[in-house]
Amino acid sequence: MTPSSIYDVYWAFTAERQAMYNRRIAxxxxxxxxxxxxxxxxxxNAYRAADRVSQYLIKNxxxxxxxxxAPQEIFFRxxxxxxxxxxxxxxxxxxxxxxxxxxxxxxxxxxxxxTWAMERGSRIYSPAYIMPAPRFGALRKHSNHLRxxxxxxxxxxxxxxxxxxSLQAVFELLRAQPGVGNFLAFQYAIDxxxxxxIDFDEADFVVAGPGALDGISKCFAELGGCTxxxxxxxMADVQEQEFERLGLSFGGLFGRRLHPIDCQNLFCEISKxxxxxxxxxxxxxxxxxxxxxxxxxxxxxxxxxxPPKWGLSPNAVVSKSGQIPMLFD
Length: 329
Hints:
By secondary structure, the chain is mostly helical. It is 49% helix and 2% strand.
């Protein structure tokens, strides 16, 4: 494999994006970064599990104090939340219909509620993922998705996933479902792996999504016969030596290394970042704009929450930072 001029930008972006996160959770009152692109546009965190929607999933949907830890219930809640991938949709359903549980849910009532919300102009899906509609005979996309969830539950998919021997096996079970392709199956497998339902090493398996493929094409002039997934694993393997080589400070997520899922996401983000920093490098997609602008919330609402099995200690947070270095020209 032959790195391009963007390869070092990948590592600098990663270090500064994580530094911004550390400053944010330390409630720094100053600018989180001096990098003009990071200040102007919205990028996900260096670690997928630290993003707002993942944080809500882990803390409120999977590990909430009143939530059942039965595998079928975890599966049901996780898939219902992630198919829409929108906090406001989940909260609307629970506010109107009560706590969500497979044992008590009325999916027809959920369907009617979401139809009502859409008719009043609400967006019930996040724009983060393209969610193809499975073909279950309903007129509306969300109705078909609810029928998909019902079919997965009735076909004992939670039990089969619980018995799976690897993260890849979980991925393959999910990919076999109608309307769930490679990218979504991998994302759902990672989401389920946050919970107590399954517990596989995230380092074992990765799938490169479309954004990651574009980022890889920008970071490497040629792949030397490696698959995109092998490139992603390589990035996870060499992270410490690359940060050291470039003189970048990177302590990880409370000591947790970047895992392949994080390196995959970072390729997506570097694909976006370089549309502005290196517009002459077009990549595979040819996209030239970043759609979402950055808006900083007034304050950090609460201490981050990660799967307890990770053994992280978010309370041991960095102190407020002083001068912030400019990492990008």
